[in-house]
Amino acid sequence: MPATAGRPIRVLQPFGRIRPTTNPYIAMLHAALERTAGVEPVLFSYPRALVGRYDVVHLHWPETRLGGRGPVRRALRLVLAYAFWARLRLTRTPVVRTVHNLELPSGLGRLDYAWLRLLERATTLHVVLNETTPPTGRPSVTVLHGHYRDWFRETERTDAVPGQVTYAGLVRRYKNVVGLVRAFRDAHAVDPSLSLLVAGNPSGPDLEAEVRAAAHGADAIRLDLRFLDDADLVRAVTSGELVVLPYLHMHNSGTVLLALSLDRPVLVPDNEANRALAQEVGPGWVLTFEGELGAAAIRRALDEARGPRARRPDLSRREWDDAGVAHREAYHEALRLRRGTRTL
Questions:
Q1: pLDDT in tens, 142-154
Q2: Residues sharing a CB contact under 8 Å with residue 204, sequence separation 6 or more, in sequence order
Q3: Quick one: residue 76, left, alpha or beta (phi over 0 = left, psi -120 to 50 = alpha)?
Q4: How confident is the model at residue 51 (pLDDT cuts 50, 70, 90)?
Q5: What does the alpha-carbon distance between residue 164 and residue 186 come to, in Å, rounded to a whole number?
Q6: pLDDT in tens, 29-40
Q7: Using an 8 Å Cβ cutoff, are 212 and 320 in contact?
Q8: Nearest to 168 by CA among 274, 101, 270, 243
Q9: Cα-based angle 329, 100, 31 (whole degrees, multiple of 5)
Q10: Residue 225 and residue 214: Cα distance in Å, rounded?
Q11: What is the CB neighbour count within 10 angstroms for residue 342?
């Protein structure tokens, strides 16, 4: 690796440490990079980011560098974020960003958005998580989102409750959980044997109130609106015959892969990405609905979920060791692009 003087590529990661609440995707990717020859992932701190030694920066959700409790802390984090951008620009350090979402996050301030746009202009290479991601305006490589089988290997599962459909994961407005509750009530009116579990932490009290109001008076609906640890999450997902993700917009979803990793079929919006995933994992695992989720789609998907299919979905393209190697090659490519050479 001549570009790094025969040593591993030192990659600054966007998180300071791996906590029990860290997104499993981040934790599994970091572990995979630590196992990958030729890569040295290093954890984030502002002293390291501003004056430390690294060859490449890898970002996921850069907006997490912003915000903070109170105006003083928010202002300090913004100053540090701009200083970090200045360091990257002055040193021409390659920036790799994984495209988890196609749109900018909402609810940020003007200077926050300005920083995100500056950082995007400084980005050398995008990592996209599926093969249907539209062009991003930057060079890009595809590294498929890895599975969760190893992550949950030792976590106890439960038997599926006949007739239960489940939503599990963070409750966000764009995920349309209120729409799911309303569609389920219509389905239950036709088939009283059905039940619904909604499990996960809402993004705010207003949304929680809307979910509770939509479910009010329906004994067949159980709400568990709190943060779920791994054990709770696995119990929630595996207790359903079918996992329903009624998102208004879906492109990359770790929850889909989580459900498949736990051998539960999923109902998701019909789009190019989900059709490709359905073909990849095999028949009967990824079921789709068109337009707004309705009662008929839920009942049809439950019938399909009870039909014959392979014992487990095929997730062989989503091994984490493969992802580690693919990221190493992405870092090499970012160095090539930044230095304007074809070979290292």
A1: 999 999 999 999 9
A2: none
A3: alpha
A4: very high
A5: 15
A6: 999 999 999 999
A7: no
A8: 243
A9: 50
A10: 14
A11: 7
